[in-house]
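Sequence only, no structure available. Ideas?
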Amino acid sequence: MLVDKPHGITSFDCIRKLKRLIPRGTKIGHGGTLDPFATGLIIVAIGRGATKHLGNLLGLDKCYKVAVSFGTEHDTLDNTGTEGRTCKIPELPQIKLEEILHSFTPGYEQVPPIFSALKSGGQSLCRLARKESPDMDELKKIAISKCRAVKIYNIELKSMDLPEFSFSVKVSKGTYIRSLVRDIGDRCNSCATTTALRRTRVGIFSVETAQKLETFSSADAILKNIISITKFHS
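Reply:
I predicted one. Tokens follow.
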């Protein structure tokens, strides 16, 4: 089932709402987390036959629309966090910004955000950061140790009115868009924060065919929007 997650709630909040509408004991899960501030496509699997394929969904390529602001970097790498460093807004012509964006293809070694679900010592980095134990310097070292290769298949500048700009991007599994924006800021000799994020596609599935979460007010509404698992392999 394809769900368009709204702003301000977690992916688990979506699952929790849907779980109340299906028979008790029915398995349910999703094929890829979206941050609370992000919107867009979540693939929801319902029933044992569907949920066993969630691992395959996690490996699919994903597409996003991203809004960015130069000049500040927040601890969360989005505008929900605490402002950290401030930087001079770069004076870039459009062609130079496009060149910098394209420099990230076909991929690069990416350091994940500290505020993420990646684990250290059995706890998520996000949880450790909110506890402030260990300190931020140590958490940065842990995040650097989890650097991984990611693929940036396509990236395209959509609008530019500095300090703001937006772009669309297609990426591989494990890519953090917030980290990509941070790294774009670095390559522009500035700093940058993600101000809006929307997932538009997962594999062959588009948010244009997804239903708003509020559409699902009953079990019947869920049944009307179920997609056969065979379509995921077509």
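Residues 2-60+203-233 form one domain.
Hope that gets you unstuck.
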